[in-house]
């Protein structure tokens, strides 16, 4: 206890204010009774200033009257209470105490409303989470209303469920707290479907991006030509390329060549031609050029839509919308990259 007093005297802003304060400090006026009856003498003013709950305990009419004031902190090891009191004096908690009594300190900081200690414990315990202790800490975090720690526990638990399931902690929880077990299982279920949704979304996005890239390539093949395919009225030696999207462009060129020469196409018996035909139709759906468009079938598709000879169903319209937005996202990020590149290009030039 002497150690505590000295520490406080060093840290206290009022040290040196006058002898009265110092005298008061030197004389402990409250006793903290711990499990096993061991006593920690302390200063009521310091405890009260650090914890509103202790303050209420000390200033209650009953306690004020009694000459020997006592606070009972039971159910926690003596050393943990000592570390807690030390925090109330110094606002500091060393790593060793956190390591040994983190769980107890979290409970005490919650019960006696010491937010700074609670924050330290939440962080300290989160750093020390293991497969073995995660269930215990999860239960404690829930009891002590520490949501950050609670979510961290849930994540660790659901990522390692097969091993956590084998621990004593989990078995105990299953037998004693079926509601919490249910809550955890539900969280895991939601996390799993969240993961699935994200994966599906990413796959879809990449498909739309591929399609939007194919649309760009189709346009540039049909207007300026790329390596081996170009507009019929253009000198093939003037074909440009290979372009920046040559992987897609090359595949598309092969498909166009096939489309032009395929014999089975006529009766709709060729899957490859069907795909090419869909790409032409997709182009027509997103093309905003009226007469000048040089992509084959663009005008024909537009006419057919106008004459109501083909119906764009909802799925098709959704596909068109997604490809258009993928195209927009792509050109935006390209523009951004270009802007970032510009200074470098300029520097090279000079
Ligand atoms: Zn190309
Ligand atoms: Zn074919
Ligand atoms: Zn077009």
TrEMBL record:
<dbReference type="GO" id="GO:0005516">
    <property type="term" value="F:calmodulin binding"/>
</dbReference>
<dbReference type="InterPro" id="IPR035898">
    <property type="entry name" value="TAZ_dom_sf"/>
</dbReference>
<dbReference type="Pfam" id="PF02135">
    <property type="entry name" value="zf-TAZ"/>
</dbReference>
<dbReference type="GO" id="GO:0009751">
    <property type="term" value="P:response to salicylic acid"/>
</dbReference>
<dbReference type="InterPro" id="IPR044513">
    <property type="entry name" value="BT1/2/3/4/5"/>
</dbReference>
<keyword id="KW-0863">Zinc-finger</keyword>
<dbReference type="GO" id="GO:0009725">
    <property type="term" value="P:response to hormone"/>
</dbReference>
<keyword id="KW-0479">Metal-binding</keyword>
<dbReference type="GO" id="GO:0008270">
    <property type="term" value="F:zinc ion binding"/>
</dbReference>
<dbReference type="GO" id="GO:0042542">
    <property type="term" value="P:response to hydrogen peroxide"/>
</dbReference>
<dbReference type="GO" id="GO:0005634">
    <property type="term" value="C:nucleus"/>
</dbReference>
<dbReference type="Pfam" id="PF00651">
    <property type="entry name" value="BTB"/>
</dbReference>
<dbReference type="InterPro" id="IPR000210">
    <property type="entry name" value="BTB/POZ_dom"/>
</dbReference>
<feature type="domain" description="BTB">
    <location>
        <begin position="28"/>
        <end position="97"/>
    </location>
</feature>
<comment type="pathway">
    <text>Protein modification; protein ubiquitination.</text>
</comment>
<dbReference type="InterPro" id="IPR011333">
    <property type="entry name" value="SKP1/BTB/POZ_sf"/>
</dbReference>
<dbReference type="InterPro" id="IPR000197">
    <property type="entry name" value="Znf_TAZ"/>
</dbReference>
<keyword id="KW-0862">Zinc</keyword>
<keyword id="KW-0833">Ubl conjugation pathway</keyword>
<dbReference type="GO" id="GO:0006355">
    <property type="term" value="P:regulation of DNA-templated transcription"/>
</dbReference>
<protein>
    <submittedName>
        <fullName>BTB POZ and TAZ domain-containing 1-like</fullName>
    </submittedName>
</protein>
């Amino acid at each position: 206890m002497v150690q505590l007093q000295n520490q406080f005297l060093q840290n206290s802003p009022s040290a040196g204010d006058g002898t009265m304060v110092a005298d008061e400090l030197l004389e402990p006026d409250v006793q903290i009774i711990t499990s096993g009856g061991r006593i920690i003498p302390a200063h009521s003013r310091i405890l009260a200033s650090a914890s509103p709950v202790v303050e209420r305990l000390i200033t209650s009419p009953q306690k004020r009257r009694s000459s020997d004031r006592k606070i009972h902190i039971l159910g926690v090891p003596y050393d943990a209470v000592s570390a807690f009191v030390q925090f109330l004096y110094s606002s500091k908690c060393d790593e060793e105490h956190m390591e040994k009594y983190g769980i107890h300190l979290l409970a005490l900081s919650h019960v006696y409303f010491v937010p700074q200690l609670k924050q330290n414990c939440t962080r300290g315990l989160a750093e020390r989470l293991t497969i073995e202790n995660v269930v215990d800490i999860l239960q404690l975090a829930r009891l002590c209303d520490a949501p950050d720690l609670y979510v961290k526990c849930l994540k660790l638990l659901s990522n390692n469920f097969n091993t956590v399931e084998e621990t004593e902690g989990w078995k105990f929880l299953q037998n004693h707290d079926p509601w919490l077990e249910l809550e955890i299982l539900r969280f895991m279920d939601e996390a799993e479907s969240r993961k699935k949704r994200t994966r599906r979304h990413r796959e879809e996005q990449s498909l739309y991006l591929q399609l939007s890239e194919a649309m760009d390539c189709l346009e540039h093949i049909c207007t300026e030509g790329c390596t081996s395919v170009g507009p019929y009225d253009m000198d093939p030696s003037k074909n440009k390329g290979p372009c920046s999207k040559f992987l897609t462009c090359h595949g598309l060129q092969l498909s166009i060549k096939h489309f032009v020469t395929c014999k089975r196409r006529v009766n709709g018996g060729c899957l490859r031609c069907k795909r090419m035909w869909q790409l032409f139709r997709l182009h027509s759906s997103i093309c905003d050029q009226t007469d000048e468009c040089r992509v084959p079938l663009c005008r024909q598709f537009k006419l057919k839509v106008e004459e109501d000879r083909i119906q764009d169903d909802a799925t098709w319209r959704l596909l068109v919308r997604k490809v258009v937005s993928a195209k927009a996202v792509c050109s935006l990020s390209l523009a951004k990259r270009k802007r970032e590149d510009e200074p470098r290009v300029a520097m090279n030039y000079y």
